[in-house]
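dude i think i finally got it to work??
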Amino acid sequence: MRRKGGLDMRQVTAIFVFVLVAFVATAAYAGVKTITSYGLGEFAIKGAVEAQLNGLTKDIERAKPKGESSFRVNVVGFADRTGSAPENDRVAQERAEQVKEFLLSHFPDARITVITRGDSENKRAVEVKYVFVTAAATKMIFPYEKEAVVFVILASALALIKAVKVKKTGKPGFKTISLRVLTAEAEIKYDVKLPMRGNGLLGNPIREAIAPSPENEVEKSIKSDLASYHRFLAGEKVGEMFVANKIPAKIEGAISSGIIVRTSTRARSIKQAVADGRS
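look at this
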């Protein structure tokens, strides 16, 4: 939809997609590999992790095109939710950094970017995305770096204008989702306001330290926390880190501030509880 006094965002997106497709079409090869088998809190390259990375280097060598090309890699570190969010961020970062050093020892000319997703996906892994860019792609795209900078500035300006408009109109930057939580006694429905972070990513109002994630990932995390919260209230056993990270207090704060709203509660019979447990 074209807004008055503004640009058509679909046109801007179309330009970006065109450039991306042109880049991919002229790239010789792109691949992705997820490295797993990390122990709790471990990031060292050894055992099964080292074996997987050795296999990755062989795959890369086989995929390397003939002729001139550049090798670019994006390394993303992950951790599970066993520890605190800051500690999980550190472990995920260390895993990604170790993989970067391993790859540089085999491919010293590689251009490698490292980021961490912490415990946002609750897994112990490192994701490696790589691409060989042919000389043709380099000649087609990278002489236009100045134009690319202008494009980024334009996109940033549009985002700023949108943010200002939202502030003036009083429209909150939230997306409301509905969740259903089953306990032994009841079916409880909630509306949860998720802060919008751009690029289709949403924040987690309970676990603020987690990086913004797609809606389905945030929904799973919050639903799990609400289920644990009800078990906690019932005096049942919950994870140690759930209490140590003060998740019950954070949920109660979100409820009192209107971020989480209970919309309905329906009692469940023992027969329903058993049936739900089997489904």
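The two ends are 42 Å apart (CA to CA).
im so relieved honestly
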